Every structure is written in structure tokens, then in C-alpha cells.
Amino acid sequence: MTPAVPLQLGLGVDAWSLILIVGTLVVYFGVAILMHVTDTDDFYVAGRTIPASVNGAAVAADWMSAASFISLAGIVSTLGYDGTIYLMGWTGGYVVLALLIAPYLRKYGEYTIPDFIGDRYYSNTARGVAALATLFVSLTYIAGQMRGVGIVLSRFLGVDIVLGILAALALVALIGVLGGMKAITWTQAIQYFVLIVAFVIVTCAISLNLTGNPFPQMALVTSDIAGRLTQLQAEIQMGEYIVPFREYSQLQVFAIALTLMIGTAGLPHVIMRFYTVPSASEARLSAGYALFFIAILYLMVPVLAIFAKFNLIRTLNGTAVSEARSIPWVQRWTETGLLRISDANGDGVIQMTQGLTASASEVFIDPDIIVLSTPEVAGLAPIVIGVVAAGGLAAALSTADGLLIAMSSAVSHDIYYKIFRPEATQRERLIVARVVILVAAVVAAYLGINPPGFVAEVVALAFGLAAASLFPPILLGIFDERMNKEGAVSGLLVGLTFTLVLVVLMRANVVLGLEEPFLETFLGLGALGVGIYGSILNFVVAFVVSRFTPAPPEEIQELVQEVRLPRGSRDVVTGEGVEADGGVDVETDGGTDAEVDTDTTDRPETEDR
Amino acid sequence: MSKVETGAETATDQATERTTDEAELREYWRRNVRLIGALFAVWFAVSFLAGILLAEPLFDVSFGQVPLSFWFAQQGSIIVFVVLIFVYAWRMNALDREFGVED
């Protein structure tokens, strides 16, 4: 249990944090009240009325979780050059998404990823497996978010961590229940603004301070800060910061980056956001906006990683232990257990030999607090620290919201409505969707309060699984007309099982509680990168099986042809009035072309055609 | 000209239209796939090639104050990724209009 941090340590800091955190929460809640929705189109896909730029901001907030905001710079500052696996891996996937998936899925219409897989492969088995994959990936992901919420609330507000998580999830669930995807989209867009402002303020201030250049994105190239850090690290035998392949082999860096990219393009909570824009061409544009908004932060991360590490080493290394322990931020973080200062050799002075997390060092710093502690280490004004707290919370909440709606749609739409109760009414479906959000929130709260000891492992697993399960059938469903049910389902099952088994074998020490993992690596790759083998296996099995089994029915091949054309994507109608949306209602042909320019701001009128 | 003839003519027109339509749509898809291929070549070159496969040789080339491969690995690739998506959106809109399949 994290102790409550009393106010006397620095009234300014906590008062600002409180005002900013509560203020932003009230805004999110207000949006949810305004966006009350009453039909499944609004609930699942925000009525397909979200402009490309707003969806881009929402995707960016959805994407940039507590992990990106809080942990990423810390991880990169630990990994050095090899941090590229996350920098590249978590951005390059958007190119894959924009060029190979987003516009076609938007043209297809409907609500979810299992919708596409189930319809394209004319099989409820495929639909069910895809829905389970969606649930599993989203659930592992949300456990990681809750840790971020816990850190921010306990450290900055001094509230009990259990109470903090319950309050945050109650708010997130309420937004989802009241306004579905519509409210979630608009709050995510606002949350993007909050988190990016927080990150920019901090990084720019430190950049100005350390390099004299207020644009951190450029400071990496124009200033000598990377060289200074490398020199500083050399002094304490920490290894050269910018030398490649210190932490991972070249093969591993390659495979992990590729797995994360392909995993990105298979993550249900991200892909389903592209259903909310009005047309296929807007889906392409929207992916561009999303990556642009993400890049604003990601281009600052490598620079902040260097700044933060430089400042920490400079402040603590060679400082008297008693003096260091009297620094306010050292005291606060020591209380959370995420920072430890010892005097192992008893000389009264800190030696950070070999780094921030090495056993030889007299300082241990959890990478998760590097960003959160940076403004204090750099001595920035209290309000900046409050802004960072609000930003970290926005990052965690926006992602949690996206995951809740992804899980809700997999259960209420794909499993309940499409598989078990196709005769369910709009009203019934909405009730189920809302109840499932609440249930998912309760599960997430449980995971947040009792985090599994292997959160980092399962989040990595989520990407590997998405790459090995959902990505191949979606891609083949669009680009390979001949791909059939037999091929897609067997590929999906083989890829999923293979990856799951290998990761469990490699992480048996944490997942199964054994002393040693069964397997260190498989063909040179560890648990983080092995998803790429699963993905390749999925493609190969799917291709071979499909060529020895019957071609898909005529109407499915027509569906594929239709999905490839943006024409008519504005006229896709789902939801009320067309209850029988059992699949191929994408059949809007060339005849509707005259209508394409009309704004489909409200319920489309195409129903009576 | 009788009504019957007009009807027959329209039917033939439609049939011809459909065949050319199919051939045109195949051409549209071929050009889309070619564009995707070209953009992915750039994608691979700036990320996996410049940042990982050539990490060591390009480490000795400096870009500003950092090694070129380090810059591609941590910043350069991301900038190019953003540009690639906007280029695709722009070129595809043009292609959609050329083939009359815009939304």
C-alpha cells in the first residue's frame, strides 16, 4: 500500500496537481453528459461522423497510454540506441495500418474487427475466435494502464491507490456507458490535448535549460547533449549511451520492431476507431493525422530520455547521501518505493556506478518515474508538475476508455448479438453493451488493485498475439480474394497457439511460477519478438490450406472487390432500421454515386432506397 | 425509334460498360498495389535498413551532433512515416478521381 503523501512537503505542488487533475476530470465528465447516445451506430462507431483530424487526435490519445507517457522515455533512457524498438515499433505500424487496412475496413463498414473477419470468412467460428482474441488483447493491455493511474494518483494526489483506481475507473466506465464511442472519441480528443501540452511544456522547458534550444525535437541533432551524456556515462562505467545493440542483438531489435509494428496494425481498439470517420478517404487521412499527433510526442521522447538521465546523474552522482535524502522529490519518490538511495560502501557519498538500475549503483530508480520526476529534478515551477500529473492521467484514462469499448463490442455485438441472439432488438443490444462496459471496468479494477506480477510480459504478449492472430486474416481478407474460411481459421489458430505457447515457455518463471523458464530464446528471439514467427506461420498456413480447399463463395469475392473501392463508403448504413445487418450490406453499388457529397451528419437517409 | 429498341440499346451499353468497368477496376487496384509497394520500400529503407541493418556502418557518418544511424533509429524514421501516410492519402485521392471511384 502506498502511503498518502501529506501536503506539508510542498503545498504549491499538490494544490496545483489537485486543481488540474480534478478540473480535467470534470471536463471529461461534462462531455460524456452532453453526448448521451440512443442507438448502436452512435454507441459503437460514433455515428460515423467524426472528422479525420478529430479521429486522429482520438487515435493518438487511445494509442499513447500510460506506458507511452510515463514509461517510454524511462525505458528509452535505459536502452539507449536499442530504445528504437519502441520508438520505431510503436509508430511504423501506422504506415501498415493506413496503407493496408484502415480505408478498406472503413469501406466495409459495420462495427468491429470480428465483424469483418466473421463476414469475410462466412464463419461464426472465425467471428468467435476473433472476438476472443480482441478480449484477450484488450484485457492484458488494460492491466498495464491501471498501474499508470495508480502511480499518478498516489504520488500526486496522495489518495489511497485503491480508492484512486476505483474513482478513475468509475469515471471511465460512466463516460463509456452514457455516451459510448461518441463520448469516448470526443473525450479522447480533449485528453490528447491535455497530455501533449503537458509533455511539450516539460520537455521544452528542460530543453531550453540544458541546450538553449526551446524545440526539443531539434535539440537532439543541433546540441551536443547526446555526446555529453555519453561522456558522463563513461565516467561512471555505464557504457556508451548511443552505441547500438548493447541490450539486444541486431536480430532481436529487427524482430521486436517488426512485431510491434504489425501488432499495432492488429490491435482491435486502434483499428475499430477507423470505423468512426465518414468515408474511406477520410480513414486514410485520419491515419496520417493520428501518426502526426503521435510523432509530436514520440520525437520528443528520445530527447527527454537523454535530458532526464543527464539531470539525474548530474544531480545525484557524487552528492552526499544525507544531502540527497533531504531533496524534496527524493523524499516523495522514496516513499512510493520507486526510488531507493543506499550507501553501500559507507563513504557517505552516492556512487551511481554502472547505472540507474544496476546492483552496483547506490541509486535505484524505477524507469516508470523518470518522466514524472523530471520536472522536479529540473526544478520547474509547481504548476508544471501539476500539468504532468493531469497529462499522465489523461494518457491512462483515454486508453482505458478505448479498451473498455473494444471489449464491450466484442462481447455485446460479436458474441451476444451476432452469434447467440441475432433477433435481439436495438434496445436490448444497447443494454447489454452498457452492462458489459461495467463488468469490464470491474475486471480492470481488480487487475489494477491486484496487478499480476507479469504486467510488462503480458503487454508485450498483447502485441505478439495481435501480430500472430488478427493481422494476417484481416490483411489476407482484403488483398487475397482466394483466401477462404479454412485457410484463415487454421492460420489464425496456429499463429495464436504457437505464440501463446512459446511466450508461456519463455516466461514460465513469472507466468507459471517456476524457477527457470523452459526456453530462453527460439531461433534467436525472446518473448518480445517471437510474435513475428507466429505471424509468419499464420500467413504460411493460411496460404497453403486455402489453396487446397474450395474457393470462397461468389458473393464473398464480390465483397472483396467492393471493399477495395472507396466509392459508396459514405452510404454505409448499419444500426436501426436495418436490423438484418448480418454482413454484406456493403453492397452499395455505383448507383449511389450522386449522393456521395452530401454530408451524412445524422441518420443516413439511404435506408429507404 | 421505338421504346423496345431504346431498351435493348441501353442493355448493350450497360453490358459493355460493365466489362470496361471491371478491367478499369483491375487497373485501379494494380496501381494502388504498386503505390503501396513503392511507399513500403521507403518505409523499410528509413527504418529497418538505416536504423538497424546498417546501424554500424552509418554510425560513423554524423548528422548534426549525432550518428546518422542513431538519428534514423530514434527520430528520422518517424518523420518519414508521417510523410508516407500523407503522400499515400494524397496520391490515392487523385487515383480515385481518375477512375471515378471516389467516395
TrEMBL record, chain B:
Lyase listed as a keyword: no
Alphabetical keyword list: Membrane, Transmembrane, Transmembrane helix
TM annotation in the entry: 35-55, 70-90
Pfam families assigned to the protein according to its UniProt record, in alphabetical order: DUF4212
Cited InterPro entries: Na_symporter_ssu
Annotated stretches, region: Disordered: 1-22
Sodium symporter small subunit domain segment(s): 26-102
NCBIfam families: Na_symport_sm
Name assigned to this protein: Sodium symporter small subunit domain-containing protein
